[in-house]
Amino acid sequence: MKILHCCLAAFYIDNFGYQENILPKMHKLLGHDVTILASTETYIGSKLGYTSPGEYINENGIPVKRIPYSRFIPSVLVRKLRLYEGIGAFLKKVNPDIIFLHDVQFLSIVEIVRFAQRNPNVKIYADGHTDFGNSAKNWVSRNILHKVIYKWCAKMIEPYVSKFWGVTPLRVDFFIDVYGINKEKVDLLVLGLDDSELDITNKAFVREKVRTKHGLGEKFVFISGGKIDRRKNIHLLLEAFSDKAFDDYHLILFGSITDEMRVEIEKHLGQSNITYLKWLEPKQVSEYFMAADFGVFPGTHSVLWEQAVGVGLPAIFCKWDGVTHVDVGGNCVFIESISAEKIGKTMHEIVMDSNRFASLRKNAEEKGPKVFSYTEIAKKSIDMN
């Protein structure tokens, strides 16, 4: 089948491990003819920016078409409303059997509606990455953008969508409570682990390779990372790990540090029991997860949570309402009211209780990969299961 992935509600960044990167890749590996239609919003260096419209083949051999914003509206406004030129003509050219919308918050969704009206056999699916933790934080965003403009977008496309997928339970609720989508049309489609290039059964070899490279031997290794901003609470993790109680343990940290956090983070990176790796490719992240003993994610949710669980890594997570789906049955520990003291205490309790650690590791390794395999997620996303 011909599948068109539309990344028009936000950025599309090549060579990343976001869902809009992995789902098209997995659909292609499943034998489908895949194309991506995207905005010009992307990463320029390490910051969000805008590239030029154009066409190219991405790192997974998938054609990508980046289309321009409408020229007749000021750029500040058009990038919020997300009005584009050329969607209708491109849809007609590709003539997809399936359209997968990565979020629905773009006014040019009317072009998708028109295509669906003219082509009643096309199947449309839409996912949602929006919740009150990452969006709708001020009055204008909540009451104008989301409850009026973006709700209108969602309701416009609703009659033609087979399934709205929230990627966390909280985002399922956002579709229903904020956009007013019929709950019978909404379900959970978890983020996961790209298992196309990673053999989890080869974990022992990967673990030894990574540990040998960094001289870690059989030390107990914690790992954390991602975009290191204040809300991720990595500064509190580092403060906790500076305690002498952790001198015999090791922490691997990776990811880009935001400017506001640089001084606060870098003052800890000289510790001999901390390895900082800067940015890692998604496959490298999985390999380092396989080499570690325990993940620690004391801040806001990111796709790394599901990736860690998908590899079979037990972990500590900050507890957020609607984001407890990473608990697949005794594989993780949740912390409420995050502080450096509480993070340190939880980590220390785990390394000191070998039976508890063994149970957490066993549950993680046996259950996590089954739930968070992107091969299975990709099939579910277009009702192939």
Descriptive tags:
385 residues; alpha/beta; Rossmann fold; 8-stranded mixed β-sheet; 14 helices; 16 strands; 38% helix; 19% strand; globular
Descriptive account of the structure:
GO terms for molecular function: glycosyltransferase activity. Residues 207-366 form the Glycosyl transferase family domain. This is Glycosyltransferase. With 385 residues, this protein is an alpha/beta fold. It has two domains: 2-189, 3-Layer(aba) Sandwich (Rossmann fold); 200-371, 3-Layer(aba) Sandwich (Rossmann fold). The protein is 38% helix and 19% strand. The protein has helices spanning 19-29, 75-81, 87-94, 109-118, 139-157, 169-177, 203-214, 234-241, 262-266, 282-291, 303-311, 340-352, 354-371, 374-381, and strands spanning 2-7, 33-38, 41-44, 47-50, 54-57, 63-66, 98-102, 123-128, 161-166, 186-188, 221-225, 250-254, 274-276, 294-297, 315-318, 332-335. The longest helix has 19 residues, at 139-157. The protein starts with a strand and ends with a helix. The mean pLDDT is 94.
Topology summary:
Layout: E1 2-7, H1 19-29, E2 33-38, E3 41-44, E4 47-50, E5 54-57, E6 63-66, H2 75-81, H3 87-94, E7 98-102, H4 109-118, E8 123-128, H5 139-157, E9 161-166, H6 169-177, E10 186-188, H7 203-214, E11 221-225, H8 234-241, E12 250-254, H9 262-266, E13 274-276, H10 282-291, E14 294-297, H11 303-311, E15 315-318, E16 332-335, H12 340-352, H13 354-371, H14 374-381
Parallel strand pairs: 1-2, 1-7, 2-6, 7-8, 8-9, 9-10, 11-12, 11-14, 12-13, 14-15, 15-16
Antiparallel strand pairs: 3-4, 5-6
Helix pairs in contact: 1-14, 3-4, 7-10, 8-12
Protein name: Glycosyltransferase
GO molecular function, one term: glycosyltransferase activity
Domain Glycosyl transferase family: 207-366
